[in-house]
């Protein structure tokens, strides 16, 4: 079966390489991420009438620790409160979402900001 396009910084496709039709594999997270809710099962169809592509859901993979951002990299719509939480800076509104993600080219962890405009 063909492994579907996936974020190799987040998911570990190794167990699903070279899986024959009619078989399954367990997809997990890369070693530096926390697996939440368990491994996910990916099934390779056994019917020749179906394309050899896995059917399954991605596991939930979270990064527990994210490095502090360089202050120059924090969007101006965001500010950090004294208690360490992130919010919208004066003049901006919304529902701030700040989560640990990663650079797609290097897989280096970084904070991602959204929700303040």
Structure explained in plain terms:
The chain is mainly beta and 117 residues long. The protein has strands spanning 11-12, 24-29, 34-36, 40-43, 60-62, 78-80, 86-88, 94-102, 109-116. Helices cover 0% and strands 35% of the residues. A three-stranded antiparallel sheet has the order 1-2-4, with no helix packed on it. A two-stranded antiparallel sheet has the order 3-5. It is elongated and about 60 Å long.
Keywords:
0% helix; single chain; mainly beta; three-stranded antiparallel sheet; 117 residues
Brief sketch in words of this structure:
The chain has 117 residues and is an all-beta fold. The chain is built from no helices and 9 strands.
Topology at a glance:
Blueprint: E1 11-12, E2 24-29, E3 34-36, E4 40-43, E5 60-62, E6 78-80, E7 86-88, E8 94-102, E9 109-116
Antiparallel strand pairs: 1-2, 2-4, 3-5, 6-7, 8-9
| Fraction of residues in H or I helices | under 10%
Unreliable segments (pLDDT under 50, ≥5 consecutive)?
none
Question: How would you classify the quaternary structure?
Answer: single chain
Mean pLDDT: 92
The gyration radius over C-alpha positions equals: 19 Å
The end-to-end span amounts to 43 Å
Number of helices: 0
Based on Cα principal axes, name the global outline: elongated
Question: Which H/E pattern describes the elements?
Answer: EEEEEEEEE
Number of strands: 9
Secondary structure category: mainly beta
Beta-strand content bin: 35-45%
Sheet with the most strands?
3 strands, antiparallel
Widest sheet, order of strands:
1-2-4
């Amino acid at each position: 079966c063909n492994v579907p396009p996936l974020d190799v910084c987040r998911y570990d496709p190794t167990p699903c390489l070279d899986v024959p039709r009619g078989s399954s594999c367990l997809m997990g997270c890369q070693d530096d991420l926390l697996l939440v809710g368990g491994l996910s099962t990916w099934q390779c169809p056994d019917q020749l009438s179906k394309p050899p592509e896995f059917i399954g859901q991605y596991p939930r993979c979270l990064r527990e620790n994210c490095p502090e951002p360089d202050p120059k990299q924090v969007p101006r719509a965001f500010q950090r409160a004294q208690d360490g939480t992130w919010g919208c800076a004066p003049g901006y509104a919304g529902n701030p979402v700040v989560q640990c993600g990663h650079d797609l080219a290097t897989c280096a962890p970084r904070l991602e900001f959204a929700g303040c405009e």
